[in-house]
Amino acid sequence: MDCLDVVRQLWEYLDGELTDETMQEIRAHLAQCRDCHPHLDFERAFLDAVAATRREHAAPHLVRRKVLAKLRAAGFEM
Amino acid sequence: MRMADPHEGDGDSDRRFEREALPWLDDVYRFALSMTRDEADADDVVQETYLRAYRSWHTYAPGSECRKWLFTICRNVFLRTRERERNRVDVAGDETHLEALAAVRATSTLRGGGGEDIFSRLDLAPALDRAIGDLPEVFRVTVVLVDVEGLAYDEAAAVLGVPIGTIRSRLFRGRRLLQEALVVYARDAGFVPANRAPSPCTGLA
């Protein structure tokens, strides 16, 4: 497995969505290839940044109140 | 006259719904907003999602993934209430390879010119948030489910009712589009030069 093969699959590697065999091959490549590490660090930081956008959107209190009102109208008892 | 619900007025069932379903309201709202891109529409979708979830609570298997179950209902509510044409985009195998190369280029572009620490030096959250919102719906929903909400590929496939290979290709293209948006953002912020040397690892410019 060369550098391009590794870099092409970095996202799935970081997601843990490759076969055990491929995960091991990439892990072995990364252990001995310094060139690929910046790619790995970059992609990890990128995915962390995307995941961090989660904090941007919580349901507004008004939506929560509307949901509860609708549920109560349907018989829900808290 | 309202139709009778199998669990209407069932205190134990309601308490279980309150304990297991309601805590996911923020997650469902985010997912709804990722589809509607409109807060008022997301508001409606979330209300309808919870109403349907409550009315079909007797079909929910205790101990299963409640958030995934709610996402599935939310997706169906969105598709039915908006009657939006599904924007199907299939990526062929060969094209996936080209997408991979494009992603490498985008990564190399961001990494070049001292962009390695772009994530620590720039507040990317607003730019990423906008870029996610600008993605075509099929990519946006996939990115939100996997990258923001943390679902596994097979879980996202179940929520969206598509094969796992579709999730892989949509996720790949969605992420690549986000990185392209970041390239523009980084250049505007003066972090990445217009011309740069090829990556030493891949040789891709």
User: Any idea how many domains of chain A?
Assistant: 1
Q: What is the count of distinct domains of chain B? A: 2
Largest interface: A-B, 43 and 58 residues
Taking the sheet with the most strands of chain A, its summary is: none
Q: Structural class given helices, strands, pairing of chain B?
A: mainly alpha
In CATH, the architecture of the largest domain in chain B is Orthogonal Bundle
- What is the CATH C-level name of the largest domain in chain B? Mainly Alpha
Concise overview:
Chain A has 78 residues and is mainly alpha-helical. Chain A has helices at 3-8, 10-15, 20-32, 37-52, 61-73.
How would you sum up this structure, described in words?
The complex is a heterodimer of chains A (78) and B (205). Chain A has 78 residues and is mainly alpha-helical. Helices cover 69% and strands 0% of the residues of chain A. Chain B is mainly α. Chain B folds into two domains: 11-82, Rna Polymerase Sigma Factor, Chain: A (Orthogonal Bundle), CATH 1.10.1740; 93-188, Winged helix-like DNA-binding domain superfamily/Winged helix DNA-binding domain (Arc Repressor Mutant, subunit A). Chain B has helices at 11-20, 25-36, 39-55, 66-82, 93-111, 118-121, 125-134, 137-148, 153-160, 164-188. The chains are: A mainly alpha (78), B mainly alpha (205). Chains A and B meet through helix 1, helix 2, helix 4 and helix 5 of A and helix 1, helix 2, helix 3, helix 5 and helix 7 of B.
